[in-house]
């Protein structure tokens, strides 16, 4: 069987790497506007890429992957990260406990971008189990038409099957330009080269910090800036 999934790049890179090391063929359905850097990484690992309309984002990639799996069920093993319970469970069993341990249980707010929603759901469920007063803040693009690859504007997107809307205590929305500015700031002021989804998470976390009196805020930087070095926003505001 060929491992199959839809991806904006990150999980796809992990699957391609594991497929290469374990001897599995990997086919990935990706939006056509996938950055050149990520295309090269995926093909370097030997993954086959199926490009879907850029305007449809990961929703279009999911539809294509489902159609491929349905048309040749014996050929493909569809991992379906957007609806796979193993997604959020991995964060419940690893990321959540790590955050709790590293903050010595003092975390008061968890801020996370929503893509597959697995990180938010898994970490959120663990933190609520440990302390129901921890506030869970989801981060989305401020518009259906945005440049935050891998992050969903849930109101206008295919909602992942693993998403639990009852978990979120609050939603924050970030403009693409603000996320890009924060990514540049992290690189130039903190020496952290991250992608725009990380910039969006940082923007939301900073705005949250400005309005609370005290607390311990934890966020996740889910993407590396090396995947986007060809983008023009790195050259702005030097």
Structure description:
α5 (118-130) links the parallel β5 (109-113) and β6 (135-141). The N and C termini lie far apart (49 Å). The protein has helices at 10-22, 36-44, 57-71, 85-102, 118-130, 176-190, 196-211, and strands spanning 2-6, 26-31, 48-52, 76-78, 109-113, 135-141, 170-174, 217-219. The longest helix has 18 residues, at 85-102. The chain has two domains: 2-78, Rossmann fold (3-Layer(aba) Sandwich), CATH 3.40.50.1100; 86-232, Rossmann fold (3-Layer(aba) Sandwich), CATH 3.40.50.1100. By secondary structure, it is an alpha/beta fold. The model has no long low-confidence stretch (mean pLDDT 94). The chain is built from seven helices and eight strands; from the N terminus they run βαβαβαβαβαββααβ. 42% of the residues lie in helices and 16% in strands.
């Amino acid at each position: 069987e060929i491992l199959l999934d839809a991806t904006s790049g990150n999980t796809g890179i992990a699957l391609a790497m594991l497929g290469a090391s374990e001897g599995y063929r990997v086919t990935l359905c990706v939006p056509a506007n996938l950055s050149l850097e990520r295309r090269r990484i995926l093909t370097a690992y030997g993954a086959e890429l199926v490009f879907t309309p850029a305007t449809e984002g990961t929703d279009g990639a999911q539809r294509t992957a489902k159609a491929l799996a349905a048309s040749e069920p014996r050929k493909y093993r569809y991992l379906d990260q957007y609806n796979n319970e193993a997604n959020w469970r991995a964060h419940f069993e690893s990321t959540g406990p790590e955050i709790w341990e590293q903050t010595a249980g003092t975390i008061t707010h968890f801020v996370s971008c929503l893509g597959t929603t697995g990180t938010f759901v898994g970490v959120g469920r663990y933190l609520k189990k440990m302390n129901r007063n921890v506030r869970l803040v989801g981060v989305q693009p401020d518009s259906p038409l945005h440049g935050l690859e891998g992050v969903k504007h849930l109101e206008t997107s295919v909602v992942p099957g693993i998403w639990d809307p009852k978990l979120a205590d609050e939603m924050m929305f970030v403009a693409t330009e603000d996320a890009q500015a924060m990514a540049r700031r992290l690189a130039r002021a903190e020496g952290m080269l991250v992608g725009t989804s990380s910039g969006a998470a940082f923007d939301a976390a900073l705005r949250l910090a400005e309005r609370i009196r005290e607390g311990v805020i934890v966020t996740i930087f889910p993407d590396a800036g090396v995947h986007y070095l060809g983008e023009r926003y790195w050259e702005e505001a030097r």
